[in-house]
Amino acid sequence: MHHEAQEISGGSAEERRLFDALAAFIDSGDESDAGFDQHARALFAYQYAHNEPYRRFCTARGVTPDRVTHWSQIPAAPAAAFKAFDLTCTPPEQTARVFRSSGTTGRPSSRHYLSATALELYDRSLRAGFARFVLPDGARLPIWALVPPPETAPESSLSHMLGSLMAQDPDLDHRFFWSDHGPDIPGLAGALAGVREPLILFGTAFAWLLFFDGQDGRFALPEGTRVLETGGFKGRTREIPREELYALFTERLGVPPARCLAEYGMCELCSQFYDLPPSSTGSGQETRRKQGPPWIRTRVVDPRTGEECPPGVPGVLCHYDLANLNSVLAVATEDLGVRAGDGFELLGRVPGAELRGCSLTAEEWHARA
Q: CA-CA distance, 76 to 319, in Å (whole number)?
């Protein structure tokens, strides 16, 4: 096994060929199932060959690359497996970055290893997805973030995401509003008072709640400003319904509902989903659906049968992300959702998800290859 790992680390030519093909697919905007299927099966073959824990999982299920005729047949690794196993095609000590989930205190966190090439593809994916959903008008806007900067949170995929987006356009007035004590509420409030040009405001749901609780200012931010929220409240000491939070974006910041978006990402994925805003003709109360870029697909699966759920029937969300170059492209989440048009609605966590996810590991992940 050790010898095989050393061979893998030296096989950068194969990894680079995959990168070139996947990067070109991301840049192309190809939305066809045929194009996605071609790249997904090639990536699955690479990960099956070089990711030993995942190969064992697939073998236990009787699935090998030569038996897969469509991307939907690729086994989805449970998200809990990222906590128990090193799901990487490159030896962990040779990877360029590891992202860890924020997780519940006292419980193990997910570990997502990225090689240097995989990190390059990650940046390619996140920037293209952000442009597609947040900047479809091609605007160049500074980002102000209620998020720790990457240098203080090197294992946070969210901090890396914001740092990467800022680095893409370094001439703009990007800022992190963060201190040793958490979100810099006074700093952001003071800076917003002087804003004259549109910008992007990005923060977690809890950081935004702290902002609104911590000062009573009302702002009329310039037209074209966008607000992004991510992460939910995750059992924090205080939370409010999502509808109330989004109403505050409009009431206190002056940003219309159509410019208030949610970003949904996972430590285990290299691409992100965004909530499509309510229609301009709607009431603003309709359920928002989440959508990802063409290089990530989602199946809503019946956990008992593994079969696709019919439209309108809830199931477990399984994401297939072509940007997951170094780990596994197919991830079965612990989230419950329902198909909604060309996206999905997130319904919450699967009851007992942590226990169910871990129970999959004992037999399938330790099966002999």
A: 8
pLDDT given for residue 342 in this prediction: 82
Helices (H), the chain: 2-9, 12-28, 33-50, 52-60, 81-84, 116-133, 157-168, 185-192, 205-214, 242-253, 353-359, 361-364
List beta partners, residue 274: 263, 291
198 CB neighbour count, 10 Å cutoff: 17
Chain segment 141-186, per-residue pLDDT in tens: 999 999 999 999 999 999 999 999 999 999 999 999 999 888 999 9
Nearest to 161 by CA among 226, 231, 209, 211: 231
Pair of tokens at residue 346: 């997130």
Distances (CA, A) of 156 to 3, 265, 352: 31, 12, 25
Burial per residue of 133-169, b for 16 or more beta-carbon CB atoms within 10 angstroms, e otherwise: bbeeeeeebbbbbbbbbbeebebbbbbbbbbbbbeee
Q: What is the mean pLDDT of residues 295-300?
A: 97
Residue that is written with structure tokens 């192309």 in the block: 28
**pLDDT tens-digit map of 7-59:** 333 348 999 999 999 999 999 999 999 999 999 999 999 999 999 999 999 99
> How far apart, in whole angstroms, are the C-alpha atoms of residue 39 and residue 322?
7
DSSP single-letter state for residue 61? T
Query: Measured in Å, how far apart are the chain's first and last C-alpha atoms?
Result: 12
Following CA atoms 52, 54, 56, 59 in sequence, which dihedral angle do they give, to the nearest 10 degrees? -130
